[in-house]
TrEMBL record:
This is Metallo-beta-lactamase domain-containing protein. It holds the Pfam family Lactamase_B_2. Residues 82-285 form the Metallo-beta-lactamase domain. InterPro entries: Metallo-B-lactamas, RibonucZ/Hydroxyglut_hydro.
Length: 323
């Protein structure tokens, strides 16, 4: 017996969703452990970072690479497509650790939130997740980004942007990318590997616009990794009282206390969660001020009080979801 949306298994259980979200990284720009905490240890040493000396990374939720999400999207034809959001400084390590663990064979599309180092400096390694050809005669991977990010990346990685070889220039096996500009506008969606995304422009510092993304038809997911302030149209678009309740909000939180000029800290993050009122939220972008187990206990309490389940995500976390 089958319903329109779900196959019903023999035992009557609905089959689990075939798409999923894989958190490739949940840490700040410096990543965790913060190297300074290990080479110039404080007295007493930083508890969160020093754990990395005794606990292997795969068992240590306080070991956090640069924020990045991999969407394993299973469309109507049953085919899996892998959509990568951000390619930071730690991308190679994330591939070695989590592509192998979750058996991810390749990346089909890339989406960039902005052009800061922790979002783009791994772009050279995209070649390792593309098909191999000795002559580099492969279909370029589509990569979606803002015009501003495009201009900056053309300076950082000219060899990834240039299309034509100069006369006499030998072929080099560099990543093959098809650059596609997206607008800073919630109402201008684009489709990557069959899945529709709406850009969510947010302030990341008062002089800088970064993009988050809204995706999923059956479950509405918003991913916002770098934010210091919501722009009113974006906030409206993803809030329960506005454009509709999110099933999952993935949101930036940098420090435990106070405020920061380019990121939300814990108090602003929790305020935003209350205003947007998603069904569930997961936090990313944490520094070593956050201790995974301890702060998730606090959040359990907070969630019971506020009626919105919120937890810190961790690297490698895979969430099955119907998109
Ligand atoms: Zn530390
Ligand atoms: Zn940034």
């Amino acid at each position: 017996m089958a319903t329109a949306d779900h196959e019903v298994a023999e035992n009557g259980n609905v089959e689990p969703p075939r798409s999923s979200l894989i958190f490739l990284g949940t840490g700040c720009s410096s990543a965790l452990p913060n190297a300074m905490c290990l080479i110039q240890p404080s007295d007493p040493p930083c508890h969160v970072c020093s754990q990395s000396l005794s606990i292997p990374p795969e068992q240590n939720p306080n070991y956090r690479c640069n924020t990045s999400l991999l969407i394993d999207y299973c469309g109507g034809d049953g085919d899996h497509k892998y959509i990568l959001i951000d390619v930071g400084k730690t991308f190679r390590e994330q591939v070695l650790r989590w592509f192998t663990y979750h058996k991810i064979p390749q990346v089909d599309s890339v989406i960039l939130t902005h052009e800061h180092a922790d979002a783009v400096l791994g772009l050279d390694d995209i070649r390792t997740v593309q098909p191999y050809s000795s002559t580099n005669d492969i279909d370029p991977t589509p990569i979606y980004l803002s015009q501003y990010a495009m201009e900056s990346i053309a300076l950082k990685f000219p060899y990834l942007v240039k299309k034509k070889l100069k006369p006499g220039q030998e072929i080099r096996r560099v990543a093959q990318l098809d650059w596609k500009i997206v607008e800073n506008d919630c109402k201008k969606p684009f489709v990557a590997s069959g899945l529709q995304f709406s850009p969510l422009p947010v302030m990341h510092g008062e002089d800088y616009v970064c993009l988050g993304f809204l995706f999923g038809e059956r479950c509405r997911v918003a991913y916002i990794s770098d934010i210091s302030r919501f722009l009113p149209p974006t906030e409206y678009y993803i809030s329960k009282d506005g454009g509709g309740q999110l099933d999952l909000l993935i949101l930036d939180t940098l420090y435990k206390k106070g405020s920061h000029n380019t990121h939300f800290c814990f108090p602003q993050t929790l305020d935003a969660v209350k205003r947007l009122c998603p069904k569930r939220a997961l936090l990313i972008g944490m520094t070593h001020e956050f201790d995974h187990h301890k702060d998730n206990e606090f959040l359990m309490e907070w969630s019971r009080r506020e009626g919105i389940p919120v937890q810190l995500a961790r690297d490698g976390l895979r969430i099955p979801i119907e998109l």
